[in-house]
């Protein structure tokens, strides 16, 4: 099993969720986060004063999948979340040792 963590632009969340739903992904965890990469933040104007926004709002998706579904999920996220501009995000993949459904006690593949 794998845990896929994707950091994407917030306005792409609905599109990514819909695309993942179409390929049969039934669950994910979504967290609003802030960060920066090569963008290094940006400068904004508010009430006539200029200030620097060091951390850009992003959305973090966490999706647990079987090894067989990993490539399909990654490809879907990349295709849907890509704008071609700086700050599109990143995807990280981790090995997932075990998963347990608390309500029933089921483990691993049947949990996903």
Keywords:
two-stranded antiparallel ribbon, 37% strand, 4-stranded antiparallel β-sheet, 112 residues, Alpha-Beta Plaits, alpha+beta, 2 helices, 6 strands
What is shown here, in short?
The chain is α+β, with helices and mostly antiparallel strands and 112 residues long.
Describe this structure in words.
By secondary structure, this protein is α+β, with helices and mostly antiparallel strands. The chain has one domain (2-111): Alpha-Beta Plaits, CATH 3.30.70.120. The protein contains two helices and six strands; from the N terminus they run E-H-E-E-E-E-H-E. It has helices at residues 13-22, 70-81; strands spanning 2-8, 29-35, 42-46, 49-53, 56-65, 89-95. A hairpin with a 2-residue loop joins strand 3 and strand 4 (49-53). Helix 1 packs antiparallel against helix 2 (70-81). The model has no long low-confidence stretch (mean pLDDT 90).
Give the CA-based shape: elongated
The quaternary structure here is single chain
Individual helix count: 2
Number of strands: 6
Radius of gyration: 17 Å
CATH topology annotation: Alpha-Beta Plaits
What is the element string, with H for helices and E for strands?
Answer: EHEEEEHE
Averaging pLDDT over every residue, what do you get? 90
Structural class: alpha+beta
- Strand sequence of the main sheet, in spatial order? 2-5-1-6
The CATH first-level class comes to: Alpha Beta
The helix content, as a percent range, equals 10-25%
Name the beta content range.
35-45%
User: What's the architecture in CATH terms?
Assistant: 2-Layer Sandwich
How many independent structural domains? 1
Low-pLDDT stretches are: none
Separation of the first and last Cα atoms: 9 Å
Reported for the largest beta sheet, the result is: 4 strands, antiparallel
């Amino acid at each position: 099993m794998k845990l896929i963590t994707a950091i994407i632009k917030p306005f792409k969340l609905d599109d990514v969720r819909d695309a993942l739903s179409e390929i049969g992904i039934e669950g994910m965890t979504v967290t609003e986060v802030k960060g920066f990469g090569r963008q290094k933040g940006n400068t904004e104007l508010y009430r006539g004063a200029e200030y620097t926004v060091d951390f850009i709002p992003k959305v973090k998706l966490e999706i647990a999948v079987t090894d067989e579904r990993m490539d399909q999920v990654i490809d879907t996220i990349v295709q849907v979340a890509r704008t071609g501009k700086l700050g599109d995000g990143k995807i990280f993949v981790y090995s997932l040792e075990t998963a347990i459904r608390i309500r029933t006690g089921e483990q691993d593949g049947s949990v996903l």
